[in-house]
Amino acid sequence: MTKNILITGAASGLGKALAQLHANKGFNVLIVDIQDEVGQLFVKELQSEGKSAQYYHCDIGSKENIDKLLRQIKNDHSSLDILINNAGVASAGTLEQSTQEEWQRLINLDLMSVVYMSKACLPLLKKLNSAHIVNIASFAGLANFPAMMAYNVAKAAVIAFSETLLVELSPYKIGVSVACPAFFQTNLVDSMSGASKKTKDFVQGQMQSSKINAKDIATDISHAIENNTFMIISHKQAKRQYLFKRLFPNAFLSKKIKLYQQIVHK
Asked: Which domain covers residue 90, as residue numbers?
């Protein structure tokens, strides 16, 4: 029986890499995005390769839209094997710089969409004994990127949500993973609002110098699903930094203060 995987934000970037990888593995891929032209073209490309895929339009910033999406999916499919909450946006700015509207936008798109989508998909996931949810957070949620206050908070909340969800869903044998990638080559800057030129230059430089790409992270996520691994950190330097934070929290914060001053006040 063909397995179904639903991926939000799957028309480009990491979501597209995840969709391609799982289509190659024989999954039926449900691609959810707002980029209709790009998403539908991607589905046609997959189908021309003999893969199974469908496109669904949904603005995940609205619970009503997610409920409508799930009604469509339930009409088309009786169960769901994997849900990957990948869609989201970026934002930059300190507490003083960021507006209330920006906070609401980030929390809604990067956190509440994950909550709404996970809850809406539970009935389909519970029909199987080996379903899995993957939430795409960010290393920013563990290590706090400089001058990205709202983004850091939203991604940290996704990590906490994922950990709590893992415990709550354990009786149903539904696995939960959270991916915390550091910078890699993607279109993150394109969706980044409120960023100063210094911050954008810093982020762009980090992405361009990264030796890890979307395909690498998608592969790590696939392995985590297969092995039921919770935390996914692909970058070796990020793993070392996270360990350093846990062992030496005060020294870690001192380094963060210096980095913040270099980027924001240099």
From this structure: 4-237
- Would residue 248 count as lying in a domain? no
If you write DSSP's letter for every residue of 144-211 in order, what string do you get?
--TTBHHHHHHHHHHHHHHHHHHHHHGGGT-EEEEE---S-SSSGGGGEES--HHHHHHHHHHHHH-S
Q: Which two tokens stand for residue 213?
A: 């790409």
Tokens found for residue 194: 């409120």
Q: Is residue 261 assigned to a domain? A: no
CATH of the domain at 154: 3.40.50.720
Q: How many domains does the chain have?
A: 1
Q: What is the distance between the alpha carbons of residues 135 and 155, in angstroms, rounded to a whole number? A: 10
Q: Is 153 inside a domain boundary? A: yes
| Phi/psi of residue 3, nearest 5 degrees | -90, 145
Please list the residues that pair with 8 across neighbouring strands.
32
What is the rounded CA–CA span in Å between residue 4 and residue 247? 40
**Does residue 265 fall inside a structural domain?**
no
pLDDT tens digits, one per residue of 47-59: 999 999 999 999 9
CA distance 242 to 183: 14
Distance CA 247, CA 95 (A): 27
Determine the Cα–Cα distance for residues 154 and 115; give it in Å rounded to an integer: 12
* Tokens at 135, concatenated: 């939430």
Q: Which two tokens stand for residue 54?
A: 């469908």
9-48 pLDDT per residue, tens: 999 999 999 999 999 999 999 999 999 999 999 999 999 9
Which residues have a Cβ under 8 Å from the Cβ of 107 and sit 6 or more positions away?
150, 153, 154, 157
